[in-house]
Amino acid sequence: MARVFVYGTLKKGQPNYKHMINTAKGLAKFQGRGRTVEKYPLVIAGKYNIPYMLNIPGTGHHVAGEIYSVNDQMLQFLDEFEGCPDMYQRTLMRIEVVEWEGKGDTGEARAAAEGIVECFVYSTTTYPPEWVGLPYHDSYDSSGKHGLSYILRESR
């Protein structure tokens, strides 16, 4: 199992969460909530209002999201869904645990409940330069006050 941190449309209550709970695509088990240890710019960009975490460590905010434990099948689905490695790149990032629901008495589970875990995160280094000038967010909600509702793929 791999650990993945999601900050955008794959979170609970967001437009693409349905993929995280679709066992035909693989298994994803919610572990808890967290935020990036380093600051990153989270922008909403493009004509479909897609959330992107720009891979510019030290700029922006500590981005909030959810931590999942996923199997290889789900990780492969997420790579395809996120257009990895062209649109997004999957990299390891340090995530500060804010709330932990993960079960288990292993040393790893205890450490996670107490602080920082490494997770795969889909961020991007392949973006138009003007995106750096967009407003930075610390968390994402498709129906947030930014007014930039995400356009589902099936509606494009």
List the helices and strands and how they pair.
Elements: E1 2-6, H1 17-20, E2 28-36, E3 42-45, E4 50-53, E5 64-70, H2 72-81, E6 89-100, H3 107-114, E7 116-123
Parallel strand pairs: 1-7
Antiparallel strand pairs: 1-5, 2-5, 2-6, 3-4, 6-7
Report on the architecture of this protein:
The chain contains three helices and seven strands. With 156 residues, it is α+β, with helices and mostly antiparallel strands. It has a single domain (2-137), classed as Gamma-glutamyl cyclotransferase-like (Hypothetical upf0131 protein ytfp, Roll). Strands 1-5-2-6-7 form a five-stranded mixed barrel. A two-stranded antiparallel sheet has the order 3-4. Strand 3 and strand 4 (50-53) form a beta hairpin. Belongs to the gamma-glutamylcyclotransferase family.
- Secondary structural class: alpha+beta
Unreliable segments of 5+ consecutive residues? none
**Shape estimate:** globular
Question: So what's the CATH class?
Answer: Alpha Beta
Helix content percent band: 10-25%
> How much is the radius of gyration in Å?
15 Å
H and E string: EHEEEEHEHE
The total of helices stands at 3
Q: How many β-strands, per DSSP?
A: 7
Sheet-strand content, in percent, reads 25-35%
Strand order of the largest sheet: 1-5-2-6-7
**CATH homologous superfamily descriptor:** Gamma-glutamyl cyclotransferase-like
Please outline the major beta sheet: 5 strands, mixed, barrel
